[in-house]
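Today's session is about reading a structure prediction critically. Students often jump straight to the picture, but the first step is always the sequence itself: look for stretches that repeat, for charged clusters, for runs of hydrophobic residues. Only then move on to the predicted structure, which in these notes is written as discrete structure tokens rather than atom positions. Here is the chain we will use throughout the hour.
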Amino acid sequence: MMPRQAYAPTPHSYVPNTTLSATINLDEEVKLAETRAERDLQESLAEIFSIIITLDELEKAFLKDAIPEAEYTEICERSLKQYKSLVADETVAKAFVGLEEFKAEWDLEVPRATERIRVGMPFTAVTTSSGAAPTPATSGNTSGTLILEATQDFITFLDALRLGLLAKDQLHPLLTDVIQSVNKVTDRDFENRGKIVQWLITLNQMKATEELSEDQARELELDINSAYQGFKSTLS
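Below is the predicted structure for this chain, in token form.
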């Protein structure tokens, strides 16, 4: 008696799909994206993912004094600039949706990066040295130049408001110049300095072309003018 030949079982429900088979070229490389636009979008989203992770690790390192302040500030400013540039693209923004949605989609737990992106500036730009000795604001030509630059930045920002510039992309860069120039003059806190930071955060949350209301503009002008007076009082 001849032994029975064994065959691999074939599911009875299987029916070959000749239409599908005809459309698949097994020699063709499988691609993640079909078009250049899709590849560019994937790369942009991957860059955003990388920047968020980098910012979170950077904040941790800075809190542990594992990175010099100047290096932290440089990397943070560059990362935030790249992030803002990427999400400003209309196609990327549509796929990205928002930071919270992106974090949920990719299961990201990055509280420090979330706060830094919300603020829109390095930690070093929004805080002052508590209890530190005052920075000598009037010593030498360099300090005099820095004071002049800070004063000009205050005036430029207030003039922009009076000229009716109300959009986020018009005001945020000018107010960033104010806080950066002020920080170069003094590391002391002064009256209404916190208002500058609060408005920077408010503007950072707005869309690029979104505008302040007239009431907001008046309040902003009063707050920054008060901060300017507080800044001048530190120079006395």
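Discussion point for the tutorial: The chain has a mean pLDDT of 84.
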